[in-house]
Every structure is written in structure tokens, then in C-alpha cells.
Amino acid sequence: MDRRRWLTLGGVVVALLVTTGAIALARSGGERSASTARPQASHSGPPATVIVPGKPGESAKVTDSDQVAPLDASTYNAVDTAFVQMMIAHHRQAIAMADLAPQRAGNAQVRNLAERMSIAQKIEINVLEAWLEERRLPENNPAHNHATMPGMQTDAAIAALTAARGADFDKRFVTMMTAHHEGARVMAGDVLKGGSDQRVNEIANEMAVEQTSEIRRMRDLKVT
């Protein structure tokens, strides 16, 4: 066997020895790792020492962690809650008015706009209901007088709208829905000023923009 073949054979043997050694080392390490007891989660020990910031003008104080009350993660206040609860009732009246249009409106544009309002406000009600549900808040507050909400229409006005047909319906609908939307804008403005929840702020702002746009569309109809 010549020198070149010996060198080739020697290289193969060396490679096999290296590979075998690496496999044995890996197995050995894996076995040691498996047999080694893993650290267990430590049980809660004594309370830690924490620094509690003081109120404006007061010094911070040092106390134990178990003496510190958990932070309230809620971001909403009574203004937010009242807005959401009352806006659900406000929207439902608007939907009831809009759902009269398909069988009573004489103007096709009034029918189309009413349909759009009904769909949009049903979606908004779902959003408002979800907000209350997430916070385990009731949908209604007996202390609220829905009849006094800005833009709410009286039972007599709703009855007259229900009885109207054609051009008479169109005029009543645009007049009443414009007042209804303007009332919703007032309510949105109130919560934007007094509320504290970011999501409610976004809802109220989007609502105000949409209601303003729909008021403009109704005025463009020139049916009054």
C-alpha cells in the first residue's frame, strides 16, 4: 500500500474517532443534565422592602411589600360609565327611527342614509356593550332619565313619525334625526371633557365626527 493510501486511511480513522468522541461526550452531558435535579420555583419568602412615593409635598416611606395595596388598573370614571350606558339607549332610539324609513320614506336618499345609520349605530352599540361587559358593569342605571338626554325625541314625536309617509316622513325624519345627532355630539363632548378612559375617548371622538358628517348629509338633502 503506497504512502498516499496510508495518509487517506489515517485521516478517515481520525475523523471517526473525533465523531465518536463527540457523540459520547454529548450523551454523557445529556445524562448528567437529566440526572441533575432542576431548581424548583422558590416558595414565597418574607415580604420585600419597598419604597412608596409620597403625595405631592410629602416624603416617600419605606414599608413591606405586603403592606402596599395593589394598584387599581381601571382607567375609567363615572362620567365614562354614564356616557356608555346612556349612549346605548340614545342609539337605540335612533335605530328605531331609522328602521321606519324603508317602508315610509319617499326619498331614496333618505332611505339609504337611514339604512347606513342603523347599521353603524348597531355596531357602535356592540362596542359599547362590550366595554361594559369587560368591566362587569350593568347596561342600565335606574338613576338615568333617558328622556332628558340631549336630542332624545318624545313618544309623541316618534308616534307622529311612525304615522307619516312620503315627503312628510322625510321632513320629520331629517328634522328629528338632526336634533338627535346634535344631542349625541353634546354627550360626546361632555365625556371628552370629563371622562378618563382612553377607549371611551376614542369612541366618543369617532362618534362625534360621524354624527357631524351625517348631519351635513341630511342638510344636503333639502327635504325640510
Question: What does this 3D model show about the protein?
Answer:
With 224 residues, the protein is mostly helical. The protein has seven helices and two strands, in the order H-E-E-H-H-H-H-H-H. A two-stranded antiparallel sheet has the order 1-2. Helix 2 (78-98) packs antiparallel against helix 4 (108-134), helix 2 packs antiparallel against helix 6 and helix 4 runs antiparallel to helix 7. The radius of gyration is 35 Å and the shape is elongated.
The counted number of beta strands is 2
Proportion of residues in extended strands: under 5%
> How many helix segments?
7
Provide the low-confidence segments as ranges: 1-43
Spatial sequence of strands, sheet with the most strands: 1-2
Main beta sheet strand tally, sense and closure = 2 strands, antiparallel
Task: Output the radius of gyration.
Answer: 35 Å
Q: Can you give the mean pLDDT?
A: 80
What is the CA-CA span between the terminal residues? Answer: 112 Å
Structural class from helices and strands? mainly alpha
Shape: elongated
- The helix content is 55-70%
User: In sequence order, what are the helices and strands, one letter per element?
Assistant: HEEHHHHHH
What's the gist of this structure?
With 224 residues, the chain is mainly α.
Keywords:
224 residues; two-stranded antiparallel ribbon; mainly alpha; disordered N terminus; 7 helices
Give a topology summary.
Elements: H1 3-35, E1 49-52, E2 61-64, H2 78-98, H3 101-104, H4 108-134, H5 155-163, H6 166-194, H7 198-221
Antiparallel strand pairs: 1-2
Helix pairs in contact: 2-4, 2-6, 4-7, 5-6, 6-7
